[in-house]
Amino acid sequence: MYYVLTFIQLLVTCVMGVYFYKQLRKERQVQPTGSHRGGREMDKLMKLNAIRLSEPLAERVRPTRFEDIIGQEEGIRALKAILCGPNPQHVIIYGPPGIGKTCAARLVLEAAKHTPGTPFRADAPFIEMDATCVRFDERAIADPLLGSVHDPIYQGAGQLGVNGVPQPKPGAVTRAHGGVLFLDEIGELHPIQMNKLLKVLEDRKVRFESAYYNPEDHHVPRHIHEIFKNGMPADFRLVGATTRGPESLPPALRSRCMEIYFRALEPDEVGAIAGDAANRTGFQMELQEAAMIGRYASCGRDAVNIVQMAAGVAQLDNRREITCEDVEWVVESGHYAAKPEQNVNTASTVGRVHGLAVYGSHQGAVMDIEAVAMPGRGRVTVTGIVEEEEMGPDGHRVRRKSMARASAENVLTLLRGMGYPVDEYDLHINFPGGNPVDGPSAGVAMAAVACSALTGQRVDGRAALTGEVGVRGVVHPVGGVPSKIEAAKRAGLSRVLVPKANWLERFASMGIDVVAVETLEEVLSWMLTDETDAQTSAVRGSVRRLVAMGTEKP
After folding, report:
1. Which of 8, 411, 419, 452 sits between 20 and 30 A of 22, alpha carbons compared?
2. Is 339 considered catalytic here?
3. Distance (Å) of CA 279 to CA 264, 270, 322
4. What is the mean pLDDT of each run of 10 residues along the chain (554 residues)?
5. Contact between residue 184 and residue 130 where contact means Cβ atoms under 8 Å apart
């Protein structure tokens, strides 16, 4: 019996020795080849990492302090109020490109970490993604934003996949847990992704599902059981940025977020960015050249690009100064369009009034409106505006009669009821420049300029006005009033008339006289002066005498 047991033990030892010998031999045969190939690839990678080009100027001038972000003081203050507190909220930033939205969000998070009572920890992450580049598979194979499940049938499932265990893979929402997820161009996000993101914002976690998950499988690790049972954490604050208008975003997303507008930069602010960029490149540039760049560049990024190209032109000529000719050449080669300058004539004249409008990314502008009244039969002609306008987001636009055209008809009805001789004249109202005028906010301005043309009274050229006027003479509120007031201030005007319903206390400290009005009578008392043009008054008197004598109207 002893010999039998000894023989069996020797036999088992030999079998195990042969098995381990074969495994060791196989490993020795494979490892040198793989190690050699991996070494060569690692050498290639290290050589690629050793290659460095010079730092782009756009990265060199990227703001690192709040003071470096020019022109967005109000937007940064609002962003701080939302994120730097004990209860930070989700936020959407609207505004044109290249004005500092991303840098502002990053800096505000750093400031929030040092705010007393903040829920952000010192290591709170800032995860940045571009919604236009977030690709996902509708079968949930891959989703870099929300995460996905690597099922056992997929290649590379590893040892867990061999055992039939699905493996959840975290996305950006989980990597941003405890911090901020900055989603640039959020308006471009796929509708399916948008709906899933809204659910994550609601639950503050990501739920995963897989047909291969078995809650009773003992091969599944505990953490995977926990993820499928309770979800993966995704408690972050969303900061979405978009160059679109608010109406293009889903209402469900807007209802969950605060909204902030980062305004477009003024030419002098863009010029300041250009001057700073030139200094950082080591080139000299006078204020005249910086101001020229400010007139042609639409944002800070454009200004930096123009400076970089102008510096390249100067370097080709062995110069360290950027001249006016360099900037002109860059502008011409790039076909940059100059911004229209607000040249406002403050002289009081008959039949001309300064209206206010909003265009682009909530930018205010002063818009001259002119009118002429000629003896006629009460006809009205409105030129310089569109006959129809479109409203609504892309894909759901509705074409309707222009609200500005309808406002002109309201003005005629109102003036006729107020006793103005509308039926004795043909009235021509013109918006010079041919720019489309959307909405009813030009109603009060059209009423004032029509009254001036009909009576011959001069309009105060130092004042501007905005508002909708009804057929009963009541001035109704309109949108974009703060931007309009800023535009009037920049144009050098001294007074702005706004609807009383739009009045805000902060208007009193904006550096311009802001008057709240309720009726057209108040508007006319402020806008029409006691001065009357003699020639216009003579024409008015002749028409009235002809009408009184019963003569046919011309």
Report:
1. 8
2. no
3. 23, 15, 11
4. 74 75 64 59 88 82 89 93 95 92 95 94 95 72 84 72 83 95 93 91 92 86 91 95 88 94 89 91 90 91 92 91 93 86 83 85 81 87 65 54 70 86 87 66 89 92 92 90 89 92 90 93 90 52 43 40
5. yes
Give residue 191's identity as a one-letter amino acid code: P
8 A C-beta contact, residue 107 and residue 84: no
Please give the single-letter amino acid code of residue 49.
Answer: N
Catalytic annotation, pick one of 348, 441, 452, 483: 441
CA 258 – CA 91 distance, rounded (Å): 4
Length, in residues, of the chain: 554
**Residue tagged active-site, from 101, 210, 348, 484:** 484
Q: How far apart are the first and last CA of the chain?
A: 140
Phi then psi dihedrals of residue 369, to 5 deg? -125, 130
Closest CA to 105 of 59, 146, 72: 72
Contact 245, 97 (CB under 8 A): no
Residue 441 a catalytic site member: yes
Q: Are strands 91-94 and 232-233 parallel, antiparallel or unpaired?
A: unpaired
**pTM, two decimal places:** 0.76
DSSP 8-state secondary structure symbol assigned to residue 149: E
The overall longest dimension of the chain from CA atoms, in Å, is: 149
Q: Which residue has the tokens 């039949």?
A: 351
The answer to whether 435 touches 492, Cβ cutoff 8 Å, is no
Name, in order, each residue with C-beta under 8 angstroms of 95's C-beta and a sequence gap of 6 or more.
75, 101, 241, 243, 261, 262, 263, 264, 361
Phi and psi at residue 305, to the nearest 5°:
-65, -40
Q: Contact, 521 vs 473, CB < 8 A?
A: yes
Q: Cβ distance 488 to 356 under 8 Å?
A: yes
Rounded Cα distance between 367 and 444, Å, is: 13
Measure the CA–CA gap between 483 and 489, rounded to whole angstroms. 10
Q: Among residues 351, 370, 374, which one has the least CA distance to residue 430?
A: 370
Where do the H-state alpha helices sit in 257-368?
267-281, 287-296, 300-316, 324-334
